[in-house]
Write a structure and sequence with these properties.
The protein has 3 domains: 1-85 and 145-215 and 360-402, 3-Layer(bba) Sandwich (FAD/NAD(P)-binding domain), CATH 3.50.50; 90-142, no CATH class; 217-354, no CATH class. The chain is 32% helix and 25% strand. The protein has 10 helices and 21 strands. The structure holds flavin-adenine dinucleotide. Flavin-adenine dinucleotide is lined by residues 8-14, 33-36, 41-44, 46-50, 52, 172-173, 198-202, 206, 223, 267, 346-348, 377-383.
Length: 402
């Protein structure tokens, strides 16, 4: 065996697991495989950079267990390592009487998950975020923070390498024999004690190579962003979010003052044609588009979690006018020429349970003979990463008896 641990994917999840292993077992021999030539090319380098509080997640979920602990750990890590981070807070605003009912649920989550949150009326919202729509009330989350995600990845990479972890870039894992504990890339062969699959949008494919997660498929959704013109960006002090649809894993288009003080609007959750379909058509092969199309069609017909509604509301967001209309609901005024094009776009790989035909709402981790597969590292996996890694280590690598 030439590595105790072979980790597939150098995104935030793979790096955080390597960090956790090194904390527990400093002498462990760890190799990370990364198919790209540099870090941050996919979700971990293309997200909103928000450290969420965990208010969205019902208390019996892994997301609820890990989000707050993860945010606290990430915040402390950033401060200790001079990574830009700012606790700006955010308001969640209701946009109708009906929608305001969702605020009670969110407050109940906050209470159960030990999160600081305050119900705020119109006057209070106007004091915190004067440009936010406020007539239906909202919630103020003072602990929401923004962080430089790419710098987190780079700092982790440097620290891990200093501790002897090796990262082989330009190496795509294409085969696993989990019984024999061997794996192959396009031109190298590795043997391992345990393989950890943290391959993000490809985690389902990697799992299948090890014979795991046969009834799961990742379906990509495109997260497009616009930017607020600099001359009006002062209208948004921190972040303004809508009350999300609790049946769906996406939070809805929102305003975020990111760590460099630009204000981004987005992201969308438009069904995409490929796992790297960052352009209109680029990054999607016809075969992949067909497979994804079939999966989307099945969801559309079965309509779990009112999936049709998501499709009907999200696809129009390709048009700027429709995007602005969605963003407009959150603020008092938004002129079309205030909303500028942004090259920022991310892919949100969402796990579909093909046996039950539904979108998985929580993190999902499955085990093979000698492998662990992180199958649904969706938001808030960046926020939760350190706590998630700790949970994976104590549950699967060094299981602690209950
Ligand atoms: C638009 C958008 C906004 C988001 N906003 C937030 C937010 O504000 N806060 C938050 O907490 N979360 C947010 N998220 C979610 C968060 O970014 C992700 O949950 C997290 O980054 C997932 O990390 P990962 O390591 O699993 O995936 P990735 O970052 O995608 O890393 C996986 C890595 O595996 C590599 N890989 C894939 N296949 C192979 C293979 N076969 N061999 C070798 N390497 C391989 C890839 O190249 C990639 O580098 C957002 C996501 C998106 C897309």
């Amino acid at each position: 065996m030439n590595h105790d641990f072979l980790i597939v994917g150098a995104g935030i999840v793979g790096l955080s697991i390597a960090r956790e292993i090194k904390i527990r077992e400093p002498g462990a021999k760890i190799k990370i495989l990364e198919k790209e030539s540099r870090l941050g090319m996919h979700a971990s380098g293309r997200n909103s950079g928000v450290l969420h509080t965990g208010i969205y997640y019902p208390p019996d979920t892994l997301k609820a267990k890990l989000c707050k602990a993860g945010a606290d750990a990430m915040f402390a890590y950033a401060e200790a390592n001079n990574i830009p981070v700012r606790r700006d807070g955010k308001v969640i605003v209701a946009t109708s009487e009906e929608n305001a009912k969702g605020l009670d649920k969110l407050m109940a989550n906050a209470d159960a998950n030990g999160i600081r949150a305050k119900r705020v009326n119109s006057d209070e919202i106007s004091q915190i975020e004067p440009h936010a729509r406020s007539e239906f009330g909202g919630i103020y989350c003072q602990d929401t923070a923004v962080i430089d995600s790419v710098m987190v990845l780079e700092t982790l990479r440097a620290q891990l390498m200093a501790k002897g972890v090796t990262i082989d870039t330009d190496q795509t894992l294409i085969g696993i024999n989990d019984e024999q504990r061997t794996a192959v890339t396009q031109n190298r062969r590795y043997s391992y004690g345990q393989l950890i699959n943290a391959a993000g949008a490809y985690a389902d494919q990697v799992a299948r190579l090890a014979g795991v997660g046969q009834h799961y498929q990742l379906v990509p959704f495109k997260g497009l962003y616009y930017k607020l013109a600099p001359e009006v960006s002062g209208l948004i002090r921190s972040s303004i979010y809508p009350v999300p649809n609790e049946a769906l894993p996406f939070l809805g288009i929102h305003f975020t003052r990111v760590i460099n003080n630009e204000v981004y609007i987005g992201p969308t959750a438009i069904p995409a044609l490929g796992r790297e379909n960052y352009g209109v058509l680029s990054g999607a092969s016809p075969i992949e588009a067909l497979t994804i199309g079939a999966q989307l069609a099945q969801l559309y017909v079965s309509n779990p979690q009112n999936f049709r509604n998501l499709v009907h509301s999200e696809i129009p967001h390709y048009r700027k006018a429709s995007f602005i209309a969605a963003a407009c609901r959150l603020v008092k005024q938004l002129e079309p020429d205030w909303v500028k094009h942004s090259p920022k776009v991310g892919i949100r790989p969402q796990l579909v349970n093909t046996r039950d035909v539904r979108l998985e709402m929580d993190f999902v981790v499955e085990q093979g003979s000698h492998s662990i597969h992180v199958l649904n590292a969706i938001s808030p996996a960046f926020t939760s990463a350190f706590a998630f890694a700790e949970w994976i280590a104590s549950r699967f690598i060094w299981p602690v008896p209950n």
